[in-house]
DNA sequence: TTGAAAGCGCTAACAG
DNA sequence: CTGTTAGCGCTTTCAA
């Protein structure tokens, strides 16, 4: 609305007594400029407090210097660390970060969409199921740089993917439960359908059972849904089936928190009566009573790595097909391990 | 790098058999267009999967349709809810959200800065101490729309401010401790210097003491610093002074968590030996042992409200000078209140 | 109700 | 090493 004054490249050029092309060269470090000239330009920049107009340079250079982050919604303990990693990466590379949520679009009123894409970013990171396959395919077709975070690309599309070693993490956790703690009847609270992390964590669970000659029992599986409420409901359901189990593996810590509430409510003590473990190692897990044994997922690192891959894709046209980040077993009291200094 | 095809306004105009001016009018709902014509344009838009080029329209219209969020760093439990509120607001108004951290600038290499400002946003939200007074003053001088979130503007600048009723919240909490729980020697863990929330929470504490004729005792005050580690250290320090106290009021929940650890370590039971309360009601507070009595701060609402004020400022040139959001007392067991269903 | 045309501020050839 | 100039894709007068 208001028409505030701004120094433009012309002002700088005039003040420094050079052409705007030279100013542009100095600012972007493109092309040779005599040091004396460059200094005059830099002085003018400082004196006028000049910053380039982002839209103008974007239009002229066909680069936005911005990367987009697409997510379904901002929620949970996952989000903060992830964004920290992403932000750190974009800042280090000198890019801006634009964030779009696809959840509950209030803007359906208009026919014209303003999504993240070729027209406002140099590349985007797609988190989980935040964008449908058609749009992903379209971006792929026009060769727009995209990186998938915690969700592998649609079949047939060679898009870089960054995620956790979910299967291995779950495997190590269940191995530990079986081998070190001696449990054999281990219930599983699976995550939401369609979320990739869910799938691989279940695979790790099954793989571990199989490796120890323990038969997979569908009655010992319920859906925790990656949230507290569903985790609680899932355990109640499990309990009501009457099949005994010695431990519960919740596919994420949020559902483990709900599971803990349900177990306590049923009068069961953790870990004396039943062991409980989760996955992710979100902050509250440490404070639970008892503290939760879990698998630490390098959330921030994954965000950071997604940026690395995206920048590489933007700048060189190539990136790693798949980057799987290692997870770490975090043993606390909820699995019956001897108390340690917490 | 890659040169992907994009439908431009010219393509749409050609396909619809109209001029680009008409397309622009239809898309922006500016000016009268015959319904039949408008429909042809809309069809062409859909057929070509057209989205306007953000930079081009920004350059032409001198509006970016973007609001900027400036923060020092992405951390803590505070960040997620705040961003959720901000994102929801920007989306509802059809704005994009650009995020900048000012912490640990890796980009110091260059003389030319690309901060948030007139050149890449229509307005910005400044969170806490993320921007220095000089730059804020400059933005104010050129009448660039700015809203301060959880930090009041530099003296003399009439910039809208959104925050919590910190003083009242702290006052109610301490009143409760004194009146309902009968404590009189209440220690205080203050927040970091220079953070506004710290200051007002301490004022509420002092006000309550004064109202109950309890003398303020500097020996009962230490600095918790809004983080777990410092909260722990502060309580250790308090304990070492040898002055007895019956309760600890930590100026935020993070330091309360640290305080709890320190108390336990000293062999004290909460709340039997000593009561503990915090401020904010972050997620872990509920899971502590015992669950933490605290003051719930409407973090998400504050973010949302900051956007409301900023949009108002952008669109009408005016906004509320000050928006203080009410807080709510959350009573749990850590203050010695009778156990309730947690 | 529509179209023509002039930029918005900058980058990137192309000349010199 | 430096300057001139032609756009980038769009909005916005001004005319018709």
Layout of helices and strands:
Two copies of one chain form a homodimer.
Chain A: H1 9-16, H2 20-28, H3 35-48, H4 54-61, E1 66-71, H5 76-92, E2 96-101, E3 123-127, H6 133-141, E4 146-149, E5 161-164, H7 166-179, E6 186-190, H8 196-211, E7 221-223, H9 228-240, E8 247-250, H10 253-265, E9 275-277, E10 294-296, H11 299-316, E11 322-325, E12 328-330
Parallel strand pairs in A: 1-2, 1-3, 3-4, 4-5, 5-11, 6-7, 6-8, 8-9
Antiparallel strand pairs in A: 10-12
Helix pairs in contact in A: 1-2, 1-3, 5-11, 7-8, 9-10
The first copy, chain A, binds a DNA duplex (16 and 16 nucleotides) through helix 2 and helix 4.
Looking at this protein, list some descriptive labels.
homodimer; 342 residues; alpha/beta; 434 Repressor (Amino-terminal Domain); Rossmann fold; 3 domains; 4-stranded parallel sheet; DNA-binding
């Amino acid at each position: 609305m208001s028409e505030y004054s701004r120094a433009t490249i012309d002002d700088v050029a005039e003040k420094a007594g050079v052409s705007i092309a030279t100013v542009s060269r100095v600012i972007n470090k493109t092309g040779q400029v005599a040091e004396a000239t460059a200094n005059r330009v830099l002085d003018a920049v400082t004196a006028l407090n000049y910053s380039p107009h982002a839209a103008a340079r974007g239009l002229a250079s066909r680069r936005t210097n911005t990367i987009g982050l697409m997510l379904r919604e901002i929620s949970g303990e996952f989000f903060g660390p992830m964004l920290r990693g992403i932000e750190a990466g974009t800042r280090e590379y000198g890019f801006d970060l634009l964030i779009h949520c696809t959840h509950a679009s209030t803007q359906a009123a208009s026919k014209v969409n303003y999504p993240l894409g070729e027209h406002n970013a140099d590349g985007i990171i797609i988190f989980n199921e935040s964008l449908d396959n058609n749009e992903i395919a379209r971006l792929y077709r026009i060769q727009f740089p995209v990186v998938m975070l915690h969700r592998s690309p649609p079949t047939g599309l060679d898009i870089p993917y960054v995620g956790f070693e979910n299967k291995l993490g779950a495997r190590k956790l269940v191995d530990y439960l079986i081998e070190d703690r001696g449990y054999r009847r281990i219930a599983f609270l699976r995550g939401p359908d369609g979320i990739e992390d869910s799938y691989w964590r279940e695979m790790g669970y099954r793989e571990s059972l199989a490796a120890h000659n323990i038969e997979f029992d569908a009655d010992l599986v319920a859906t925790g849904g990656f949230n507290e409420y569903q985790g609680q409901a899932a355990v109640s359901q499990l309990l009501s089936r009457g099949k005994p189990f010695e431990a519960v593996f919740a596919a994420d810590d949020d559902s483990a928190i709900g599971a803990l509430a349900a177990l306590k409510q049923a009068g069961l003590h953790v870990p004396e009566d039943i062991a409980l473990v989760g996955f992710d190692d979100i902050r509250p897990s440490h404070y639970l009573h008892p503290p939760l044994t879990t698998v630490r997922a390098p959330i921030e690192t994954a965000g950071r790595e997604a940026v690395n891959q995206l920048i590489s894709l933007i700048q060189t046209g190539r990136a790693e097909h798949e980057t799987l980040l290692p997870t770490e077993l975090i043993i606390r009291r909820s699995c019956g391990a001897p108390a340690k200094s917490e």
